[in-house]
C-alpha cells in the first residue's frame, strides 16, 4: 500500500516552499504586465538602455509564472487528495471546495470589470470591440469563447489561465470516482492523447485548440512530481540546488530566446524548468522564521495578487503618471509598479478574498478546512 499524505508527516517548511513559489509565480506575471503598463503610461520614457524590456517592449519571461502555477496546481491536487480516490462523496466534496476557492472572487471581479468596460472602457490597455453577451457568459463559466474582435480572452484577461485550471479540476475531479491507479493512468493517457491530437491535427477552432494545448502536459508534470514524492521519491539538498539552478538558468535564457505563447517550445523552456523548481521546493526547508511567515502571507494572497492586477496596474499607472514618475528610469518604474500591485493584491486578499472565502466556504464546501493538514496550507 502506498503511503498517505498523513503517513508522510510532511515537514511544514517544504509546504511553505510551495507557498512561496505560488507567490513568486503571481509576482512574475505581474512583473511582465508591469513592463507593458509602464511602456503604455510613459511611452517617451523607453529611451536608452533598459533591462526590463524585450523587442516588443515587454520582458515576457515573467509569463513563465503561469506555467509554474499549472505545475503547482496539479502537484497540490494530487498531494492533498491522494487518499480521496474511490471514496464515497469525495467527488462532490472536491468540486464544492474548488468552486468555493476559485469562483466567488473571480465572479466578483469579473462583474467589476464588466462595469468598468461600460463606464470607463479606456482604463484597460486591452480594448474590446463590443461587450458580447455570449463572451461575458463564457467568462463567468470558464469557457474559451473568443472576445469580440480578439482571440480567446475572458473579461478578466488573466483569467484565461483559470479556464485551464477549471478544465484540469473537472478532469481530476471526475477521476476521483475511480481507484487511484486507474484514475491516474486515465488522466495521463487522456491528456497525452489530447495534446497528440493537437500536434497531429493543428485545429483552428478556439475550443479545439484549448483542449489540445501543450499546456495540459504541465498538469501532468505537477501530478508526476506529487506521485514521485508520495511514493517515496527523495532528492538530496545538493541535488535539489542543482536542479533549481539549471531550471533557473533555462528560464533566464528565455529573456533573450522567448518561446511562443503556445506550443512545444513553451512546454520545453518554461514548463519543464517550472517542474524542476517545484521538485526542488519539495526539498527546501524555509525554517520557522521570517521567510516562512512571508511565504504564508504572500502564498495565501497569490490568487488575489494575480487577479487584482487587472485593476491595480491601470490604477497605479495613472497615479504614477500624475505624480511625475515619468522622469524616473524605465526599469525603476517597473519595479515600483510591481511592488505597488503586489501590495494591492495582499490588501485585496485581506479585505476581500478572505472574508468572502470565509462566508462562502461553509455554504459550498461544507467545511472551513481541508480534509488533510497539508490542504490547509496549500489547497
Plain-language structure description:
By secondary structure, the chain is an all-alpha fold. The protein has one domain (about 5-379). The chain has helices at about 5-10, 10-40, 65-80, 90-120, 135-140, 160-175, 180-200, 205-210, 215-230, 235-255, 265-280, 290-300, 300-320, 330-365, 375-379. Helix 3 (about 65-80) packs across helix 9 (about 215-230) and helix 13 runs antiparallel to helix 14. The protein is globular, with a radius of gyration of 21 Å. The protein starts with a helix and ends with a helix. About 40% of the residues are buried. Residues about 1-15 and about 370-379 have low confidence and may be disordered.
Radius of gyration: 21 Å
Distance between the termini: 24 Å
Question: What characterizes the major β-sheet?
Answer: none
Structure class: mainly alpha
Count structural domains: 1
Percent of residues in β-strands: under 5%
Q: In percent, how helical is the residue content?
A: 55-70%
Number of strands: 0
Write down the overall mean pLDDT: 87
Shape: globular
Flag low-confidence runs: 1-14, 368-379
> H/E element string?
HHHHHHHHHHHHHHH
Number of helices: 15
Brief overview:
With 379 residues, the protein is an all-alpha fold. The protein has helices spanning 5-8, 12-41, 64-80, 90-119, 133-140, 160-175, 180-201, 206-211, 216-230, 237-253, 264-281, 290-300, 302-322, 330-364, 373-378.
Keyword list:
379 residues, mainly alpha, disordered N terminus
SSE layout:
Blueprint: H1 5-8, H2 12-41, H3 64-80, H4 90-119, H5 133-140, H6 160-175, H7 180-201, H8 206-211, H9 216-230, H10 237-253, H11 264-281, H12 290-300, H13 302-322, H14 330-364, H15 373-378
Helix pairs in contact: 2-3, 2-12, 2-13, 2-14, 3-6, 3-9, 3-11, 4-6, 4-13, 4-14, 9-11, 10-11, 13-14
